[in-house]
Amino acid sequence: MNVAYPIQSALPGLTTLARQAYLSYKGQFLWLNWPAYVSNVFLRPGLIVAMYSLTGQFARGPAAAEAYVIGLTAYAVPGILMGGILQSFYYERSWGTIAFFFASRGGRLDSFLTRGVLHIPNAALAVIAGIVFAAVFLHASYAGANWPAVVACYALMAFASTACALCLANLSIVLRDWQSLYSLALTSFLVFSGVIIPRGDLPLGLGAIGDALPVTHALDALREAYAGASLSAVSDDLALEALVGIAYVVIGYGLFRAVEAYARRSGAYDSV
Question: For residues 259 and 174, is the Cβ–Cβ distance under 8 A?
Fold first, then answer.
């Protein structure tokens, strides 16, 4: 049996996927310049960690500051992913290239998913920036962390946040706006996912909203992982995070095809 043949036959498809991911990232991610990239990926996560952690330390004590550091490194994940992916979909319409995309014969699921791939490394860099900033300037200690479990938590957050961003990005095409969606999404993560305010402390049962958001379940696992919990001990929360991400993929792809079907019928969405 020639094992190399299936691999060789798969290479053209993988090359096409890689090209789609690269072109959508390079062509429609306007933070891909040094001032914007450095400020959004490195400086912004560190400064947000510092601002909230110092506020928590003076207002509630060292324990609150430590909780804020963990929560805000998690918040950095959707922070960069939402902005990058939402704007990429929006510029597809505003620059008039979406008509060419809808007229192409490429696989739609591939095209939908690859638009988020190259934004994921940015999320990893943002997390690292927040962790390092907290260690260097706020003297945060990670001595008891179980790092394999910590990395798994951030990875699941990145998957679920990417899926959510791809889902919401369809609305940026329809609404001709990505910044309002970006602000709404980040506010929701900050308020309802337990990043700053424990979900049980929210009034009127609003903490339940966090169950449908990325980050929430993995953040619960992340706090335990930083305290030394093993990967198996946090597996239930990580499974819930994965299910949230899968749900957003299914809903987002359905919306993606619905937007395309409407565009084909009406000729809309070719430009702002």
Answer: yes
Distance CA 123, CA 158 (A): 7
3-state helix, strand, coil in the chain (%, to 5): 80, 0, 20
Burial of residue 132 (CB within 10 Å: 0-12, 13-18, 19+) is middle
Which tens digit of pLDDT belongs to each residue from 170-205? 999 888 889 999 999 999 999 999 999 899 899 988
98 contacts 173 by C-beta, under 8 angstroms: yes
Reported as a single tens digit per residue, the pLDDT across 63-102 is 788 889 999 999 999 999 999 999 999 998 888 787 777 7
Q: Which amino acid is at 150?
A: V
Residue 41 DSSP one-character state: I
Reference 127, options 26, 246, 229, 222; nearest CA is 222
Cα(72)–Cα(37) distance, integer angstroms: 19
Find the distance separating the first CA and the last CA of the chain, reported in whole Å: 54
Full DSSP string of 44-99:
HHHHHHHHHHHHHHHHH-HHHHHHHHHHHHHHHHHHHHHHHHHHHHHHHHHTT-HH
Rg of the chain, C-alpha, whole Å: 20
Q: What DSSP string runs through 171-215?
A: HHHHHT-SHHHHHHHHHHHHHHSSSSS-GGGSGGGGGGGGGGSTT
Give the C-alpha separation, 77 to 186, whole Å: 10
